[in-house]
């Protein structure tokens, strides 16, 4: 236990010492090599978004002229402003936001109780169900969209509710992608919360629902936030389902909108495409920048427990 | 007496159903069931049912007017392209996952080695590829690989080399697709491994150092065993997601050149939707499922076994 | 009073009748008004959708129909996805824009439009052979040819480069305003020119990929040799002499094409031309339109003209779009009326002008609209685009095989795959054997 009382930096230092090559290796050298390689990897990671920015600042004549693609000679914000002021693009953005936020809410409402039940309330079939949830990922989207389309059409015939080519059909489809993984994340996270907590509550006479809402959720909040962020990122990034299920321009979300309205088959306006791609990537990046720790904590909740 | 009896009986009768109902709802199994019900409904209606429906679709004739059993599958076995797709999907998935795991592992160690105050910003930068929507970042790569305007070729030609046909030559196209997949996926591995590394108790390393262990021995005897579970889980998850990948191949190469970068999902799309043979497309997609299920069972069983032992 | 009313009403009736003379039979009943939804193809030329929108709105106002229009792109095959989904679900738009093969693919789901076609042929002249081949099944017309998106994928050459390196004056060969003088424009001359330009560093930008641009060029060349993979009776003729001759020609041509041609998509040849690297591409004028905006010095050297001729004749790829009515539509009479409104001489002229000359109506009488003569610079660059002097046969790859099989040869890009495989070293017999098994697979029902 003494080790855990050590401050993080000294344990890292001890680690670095321990990992630092042959016996007697200089810690400073190891660090320098580490930083060098980290720079290389970080450069590799950040190069495409940077390139998106550079290209987004160019006019299409500059792009066609095929001068140095890594430098902007006549930077212009025209691509960005045109997109941001275009009502079409604004509709895409609005649709993406509404869909993502609602999907996150739906996902949490389904996942949190389910994860709680699967990790805490060992009941008959819980193990099978937990594995089954994970296995839903084996069923790819390209397989499902046609039977789903047919199902929604039949549904419309029975109930008169139009689902196809409406943005709200995505509210039904996205959760199939977010709920399983969010449940999985939260099972892992919940498992790391001491059992004594809910056992105490139950002994005190709380119902399961009360235990979940009043005791568990506040303690598990970081994991829940992490799952929320993950659900948002997945919902925001979806491509195939909206491509298949929404066609009218006012129903499209960003990922499909950028790829289909900006890329006009044999005429590519790459400056605008890259600007649009960057604007489309911005919300998840911004959320990530501010809530990174939650993000990472949630993803890794399963890691420490396995 | 009769009145009292009646009163008693009625009081007893009134209270019984109420408490039974309440007890029913308070019973763990009921509550658990209710908690998991939305999840079960969602998956049953929107994943399981359509999946079985597509199994049915896969057994129809091309015009979908009669039942032909396994004819679509036997037809696929005679197609040279089908076996090429099987080979390509496996090579793609396995290569990409190995490299993602390797790079993630190495970078996790690098980040772990620097003082922890600085770790946060490095972690932040390195996770960016995972956060950007893949459909959008693949567009950037598409432009980077463009035959006429590739920014990479600009540098290579500047250094005197010849332009590389990133998406034009079969080998390079496969390389490019794997590269983009690694770019997007390695950060995930890095983050998971980093968290796992942090949970390895430091004193294990200290003791090993005192005993005179080399870095390799530390890696082999301490790090890897402690991380075995997380390595297994991330590998499984990534294998599944990579195998079923659609977006990257679709946007980058559309399966070309000459079908040499097709995966199951993209080829199913091409034959099924674009080729107007939906049952055939469904049968191709279904080939993914058995392979992945077998992999999933093996790795999960391994995890469970070790979990029980621990 | 009464007389005035009657006169006014009759006046309105007669003028209304005059302007919607053709539409009247279809909009007679009261239920014809109502709503209509149309899925148009999203035009690549900026502003190309506007004319279509205006025409439909004007019609809708007159007929009191509540119309909804969507412009759906062909990028990423989004329009094909929509067609597949709507056919499966038996619901969607009333009218949809079907590319080339797709009316045949969904023949059972389309409303026959023989009545419309009789009227339109009377009005606008005969349609070309490709439209007949693709638009009719079992003797019935499945859809009417659309103006938007229909195109010829003929050569668009650089006047200066062809003159300088290949010694060919394309403007003299295809002068603006008069008939072509192109007897010497054969596949052999074409090959020599390709070799010369390749040596000079300005290769012809012809793809060997799987998207339509590449497939269409291959189709036209194969047809110039009368080389068919499947004949019109459905018999497999892959291992015929003509196919071998076509393959030999193509191997020589492919040797002087850009090295990554097998991976080209529909945008690659445009970029090749606009970047100034190519002396010739096979494309409709969209590439020139982009060059006008981004590289004017390239654009003013572009000239669109006819295809080279081969042993069996001069063939050029014509890619029609069709406007078809789903048979699950709830407002077929309004749909037919709308389609007629879109096919009048004025409507077509308007759409062609809005597309900068890109759109090609399929009717004989409409190949000499002003737009093509006047577009520039250079003036006259599009004059020969619509094949006004009928000196090349318009066709489509894999014709005249039965459409269900031809469709698969086309979408699976068997022709270009054959060429690419042979180019990369596979023996011709092995390539032919592969093609044969592929085509036999297409015979499945």
Structure description:
The complex is a heterotrimer of chains A (306), B (310) and C (445). Chain A is mostly helical. Chain A contains 14 helices and two strands, in the order αααααααααααααββα. Chain A has helices at residues 2-5, 8-19, 27-56, 60-64, 78-85, 87-120, 126-135, 141-159, 170-191, 195-203, 208-237, 240-245, 254-262, 270-305, and strands at residues 263-264, 267-268. In chain A, strand 1 (263-264) and strand 2 form a beta hairpin. The longest helix of chain A has 36 residues, at 270-305. With 310 residues, chain B is mostly helical. Chain B folds into two domains: 2-57; 77-309, Orthogonal Bundle (MetI-like fold), CATH 1.10.3720. Helices cover 80% and strands 0% of the residues of chain B. Chain B has helices spanning 2-26, 28-58, 71-77, 80-113, 116-131, 134-144, 151-158, 170-198, 202-210, 215-243, 247-252, 264-274, 278-286, 288-309. The longest helix of chain B is centred in the first third of the chain and has 34 residues, at 80-113. Chain C has 20 helices and eleven strands. Chain C has helices at 2-19, 48-63, 78-89, 102-105, 114-124, 129-135, 159-166, 170-173, 187-199, 212-224, 241-254, 268-274, 286-294, 296-299, 332-342, 345-354, 370-374, 403-411, 414-423, 428-442; strands spanning 34-41, 65-72, 95-99, 136-137, 140-141, 144-152, 155-158, 280-282, 302-304, 315-325, 393-395. In chain C, strands 1, 2, 3, 6, 10 and 11 form a six-stranded mixed beta sheet that branches. In chain C, strand 4 and strand 5 (140-141) form a beta hairpin. In chain C, helix 2 packs antiparallel against helix 16, helix 12 packs across helix 13 and helix 19 runs antiparallel to helix 20 (428-442). The model of chain C is unreliable at 1-32 (pLDDT under 50). Chains in contact: A-B, A-C, B-C. At the A-B interface, helix 1, helix 2, helix 3, helix 6 and helix 7 of A face helix 2, helix 4, helix 5, helix 6 and helix 7 of B.
């Amino acid at each position: 236990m003494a080790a855990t009382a050590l401050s993080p930096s000294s344990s890292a230092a001890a680690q670095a010492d321990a990992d630092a090559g042959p016996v007697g290796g200089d810690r400073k050298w190891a660090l320098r090599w580490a930083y060098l390689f980290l720079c290389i990897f970080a450069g590799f990671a950040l190069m495409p978004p940077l390139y998106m920015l550079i290209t987004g600042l160019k006019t299409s004549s500059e792009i066609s002229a095929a001068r140095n693609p890594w430098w902007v000679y006549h930077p212009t914000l025209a691509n960005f402003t045109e997109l941001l002021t275009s009502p079409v693009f604004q509709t895409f953005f609005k649709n993406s936001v509404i869909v993502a936020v609602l999907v996150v809410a739906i996902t949490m409402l389904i996942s949190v109780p389910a994860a709680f039940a699967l990790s805490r309330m060992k009941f008959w079939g819980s193990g099978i169900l937990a594995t089954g949830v994970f296995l839903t990922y084996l069923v790819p989207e390209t397989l499902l969209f046609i039977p789903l389309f047919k199902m929604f059409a039949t549904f419309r015939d029975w109930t008169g509710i139009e689902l196809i080519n409406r943005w709200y059909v995505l509210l039904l489809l996205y959760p199939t992608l977010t709920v399983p993984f969010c449940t999985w994340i939260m099972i892992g996270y919940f498992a790391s919360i001491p059992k004594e907590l809910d056992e105490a509550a139950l002994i005190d006479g709380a119902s399961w629902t009360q235990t979940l809402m009043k005791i568990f959720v506040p303690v598990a909040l970081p994991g829940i936030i992490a799952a929320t962020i993950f659900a948002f990122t997945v919902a925001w990034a979806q491509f195939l389902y909206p491509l298949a299920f929404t066609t009218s321009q006012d129903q499209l979300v960003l990922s499909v909108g950028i790829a289909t309205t900006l890329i006009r088959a044999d005429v590519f306006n790459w400056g605008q495409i890259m600007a649009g791609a960057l604007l489309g990537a911005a919300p998840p990046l911004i959320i990530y920048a501010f809530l990174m720790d939650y993000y990472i904590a949630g993803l890794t909740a399963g890691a420490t427990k396995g | 007496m009769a009145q009292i009896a009646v009163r008693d009986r009625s009081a007893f009768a009134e209270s019984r159903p109420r408490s039974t109902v309440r007890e029913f709802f308070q019973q763990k199994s009921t509550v658990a069931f209710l908690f998991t019900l939305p999840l079960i409904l969602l998956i049953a209606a929107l994943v399981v049912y359509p999946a079985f429906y597509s199994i049915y679709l896969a057994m129809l004739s091309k015009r979908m007017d009669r039942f032909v059993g396994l004819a679509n599958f036997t037809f696929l076995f005679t197609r040279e392209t089908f076996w090429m797709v099987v080979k390509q999907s496996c090579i793609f998935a396995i290569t990409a996952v190995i490299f993602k795991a390797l790079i993630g592992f190495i970078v996790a160690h690098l980040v772990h080695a620097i003082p922890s105050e600085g770790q946060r910003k490095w972690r932040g930068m390195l996770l960016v590829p995972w956060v950007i929507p893949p459909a959008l970042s693949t567009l950037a790569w598409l432009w980077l690989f463009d035959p006429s305007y590739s920014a990479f070729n600009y540098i290579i030609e500047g250094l005197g080399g010849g332009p590389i046909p990133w998406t034009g030559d079969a080998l390079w196209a496969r390389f490019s697709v794997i590269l983009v997949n690694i770019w997007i996926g390695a950060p995930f591995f890095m983050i998971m491994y980093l968290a796992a590394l942090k949970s390895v108790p430091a004193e294990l390393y200290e003791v090993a150092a005192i005993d005179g262990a080399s870095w390799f021995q530390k890696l082999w005897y301490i790090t890897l065993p402690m991380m075995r579970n997380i390595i297994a889980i991330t590998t499984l998850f990534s294998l599944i997601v990579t195998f079923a990948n659609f977006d990257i191949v679709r946007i980058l190469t559309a399966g070309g050149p000459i079908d040499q970068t097709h995966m199951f999902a993209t080829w199913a799309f091409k034959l099924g939707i674009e080729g107007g043979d939906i049952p055939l497309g469904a049968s191709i997609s279904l080939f993914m499922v058995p392979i992945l299920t077998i992999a999933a069972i093996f790795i999960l069983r391994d995890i469970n076994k070790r979990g029980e032992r621990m | 009073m009464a007389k005035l009313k009657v006169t006014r009403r009759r006046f309105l009736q007669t003028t209304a009748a005059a302007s919607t003379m053709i539409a009247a039979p279809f909009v007679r009943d009261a239920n014809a008004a109502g709503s209509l939804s149309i899925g148009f193809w999203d035009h690549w030329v900026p502003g190309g959708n506007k004319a279509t929108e205006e025409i439909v709105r004007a019609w809708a106002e007159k007929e009191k129909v509540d119309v909804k229009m969507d412009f759906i792109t062909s990028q990423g095959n989004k329009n094909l996805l929509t067609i597949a989904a709507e056919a499966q679900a038996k619901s969607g738009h009333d009218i949809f824009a079907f590319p080339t093969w797709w009316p045949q693919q969904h023949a059972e789901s389309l409303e026959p439009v023989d009545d419309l076609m009789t009227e339109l042929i009377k009005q606008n002249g005969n349609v070309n052979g490709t439209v007949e081949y693709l638009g009719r099944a079992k003797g019935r017309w499945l859809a009417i040819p659309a103006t938007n998106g229909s195109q010829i994928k003929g050569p668009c050459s650089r006047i200066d480069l062809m003159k300088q390196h290949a010694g060919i004056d394309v403007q003299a060969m295809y002068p603006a305003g008069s008939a072509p003088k192109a007897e010497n424009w054969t596949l052999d001359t074409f090959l020599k020119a390709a070799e010369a330009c390749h040596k000079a560093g300005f290769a012809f930008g012809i793809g060997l990929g799987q998207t339509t641009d590449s497939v269409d060029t291959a189709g036209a060349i194969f047809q110039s040799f009368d080389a068919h993979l499947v004949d019109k009776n459905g018999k497999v003729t892959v291992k015929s002499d003509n196919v071998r001759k076509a393959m030999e020609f193509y191997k020589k041509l492919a040797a002087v094409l850009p090295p990554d041609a097998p991976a080209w998509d529909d945008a690659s040849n445009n970029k090749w031309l606009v970047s100034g690297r190519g002396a010739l591409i096979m494309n409709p004028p969209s590439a020139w339109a982009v060059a006008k905006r981004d590289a004017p010095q390239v654009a003013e050297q572009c000239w669109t003209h006819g295809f080279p001729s081969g042993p069996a004749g001069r063939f050029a790829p014509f890619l029609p779009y069709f406007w078809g009515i789903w048979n699950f539509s709830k407002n077929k009479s309004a749909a037919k009326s709308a389609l007629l409104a879109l096919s009048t001489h004025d409507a077509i002229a308007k759409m062609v002008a809005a597309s900068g000359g890109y759109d090609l109506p399929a009717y004989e009488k409409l190949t000499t609209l002003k737009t093509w003569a006047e577009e520039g610079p250079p003036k006259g660059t599009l004059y020969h685009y619509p094949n006004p002097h009928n000196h090349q046969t318009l066709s489509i790859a894999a014709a005249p095989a039965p459409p269900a099989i031809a469709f698969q040869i086309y979408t699976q890009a068997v022709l270009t795959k054959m060429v690419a495989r042979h180019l990369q070293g596979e023996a011709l017999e092995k390539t032919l054997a592969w093609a044969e098994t592929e085509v036999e697979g297409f015979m499945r029902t």
